[in-house]
Amino acid sequence: MPPSGTRAVCDQYHFDPRRVIIGLFAASGISASVMKFRLPQFISALACLLVLSAAGGPAHAAAQPPPQRTSVAVLDLGETEAGRRVADELSAALARTPHFDLVNRAQARAAARGAGYAGSVNLTLAGARDLGASIGCDFYFTGEAQTLLRASTLRPDYYESYASLFLVSTETGRLILWEHFNAESAAPDEAEKSLLAELRARAPRYVEMIAKAQAAERSERLTARAREAAAGAFEDVPEEGSPAAANFRAPQPYRSLRPVYPSAAARAAAEATVDALVEVDAAGEVKDIEIMRWAGYGLNEAVTAVVRQLHFRPAMRDGRAVPVRVLLRYNFRRPHEEGKR
Questions:
Q1: Disulfide engineering: 294 pairs with which of 175, 177, 229, 319, CB 3.0-4.6 Å?
Q2: What is the pTM of this model?
Q3: Would the CA dihedral through 128, 141, 204, 181 be positive or negative?
Q4: Average confidence score pLDDT of the chain
C-alpha cells in the first residue's frame, strides 16, 4: 500500500490510484489474475519513486555550479578629478552585481600605465586584448569624463558634466558598447550630481551587455573551426613587392565612397582611424567585414555602412579571379579641418 501521505493527497482530489492503474493494466491486455497479484507491489513502488523524486529535486538543484565569476576593471576616465569621481561611481555601481569581481582601481591604473596606455579610445583589436591582459580582467571600461563651464549667446553661462564610456572585451579586443551622455546645471556640483545619477541608472544595461558579449563569445568558440575553414577560402592581399605579389592584382572598387562623419563624433570633436578587414569574393562582392581598429562615436558603424555599398573589380592571380581579404583604412577628422586639406 502507498504511504498514508500519498493516499491523503489522492483522496483530497478524489483521485484513486488503484482505479487509474487497473484501467492502464486492462488497456494493455493484462489479465485480472496478474493485476490482482501485482497491483499492490506496483502502487508501492510507484509511490516510492514519486517520494524519492520529490526529495531529490532540491538536492539536485543545489548541486548546480554557481554562476561564472566575471572580472571587470574601470580605468580612469581622463586626468581630472571629475573623471576619477565618475569612474569611482561606475565601479561602485558594478560592484553590486553578485558575480562581478571589480579589479582594484589603483591596481588597474598601475597596470594600464605599465602597459603604456595613455587613455586612447582608438585601439586595434590586438592592442585592446593586450591592455586587458595586462590589467588581468575579462572586460574593462575606459573613456573620458569632465565638468566644463560653457558659454552661450542664447542663455546664461552654465556647467556641463559629460561622460564618454567605452566597454571592451579582453578576449576579443572588440568594443562592446560606447555611449556619451551629459547633464547641465548652473552649478558644477549639481551638474555632476545629475550625471552620476544617470550613470547609476545606466549600470544595469552595462551588466546586460557584458552578459550578451559572454554568450556571443561562447558561441564563437563553439563555431571557431567552421569559421576558420570558411576564412581559409580567402587569401590575404600580399604586400607590394613581395614574392606573393607576383602576377597578383588587388581588388579595386568601382567608385570611391566616403563614410559620413556622424553627429555624435561631431559633438565630441572626435578624430580617429578605423580599420576594416573586408572579405571580397571572386565576383567582387563584399562577404564579411570585421572592424580591426575601433573608435566609437558611431565611426565604426559609418565605416561598415559605406563598405557594404562597395563593389569591386575582383582580385586576380595569374589571370584568374580569386577571393581575398583586404584591409581598408578610414581616417576621420573634424569637418572644418578636412576642408583645409
A1: 175
A2: 0.77
A3: negative
A4: 85
Q: What is the pLDDT of residues 64-121, one digit of tens each?
A: 556 689 999 999 999 999 999 999 999 999 999 999 999 999 999 999 999 999 999 9
Cβ contact 315:249 at 8 Å:
yes
In a domain, 153, yes or no: yes
Domain total for the chain?
Answer: 3
Cα→Cα distances 166→37, 139, 252, 286, Å? 74, 10, 34, 28
Residue 309 in grid coordinates: 555599398
User: Are residues 168 and 78 part of one domain?
Assistant: yes
Lowest average pLDDT, out of 48-52, 145-149, 179-183, goes to: 48-52
| Model confidence band, residue 19 (pLDDT cutoffs 50, 70, 90) | low
User: 260 and 149, same structural domain?
Assistant: no
CA atoms within 13 A on the CB side of 241: 0
**Is residue 253 located within the same domain as residue 315?**
yes
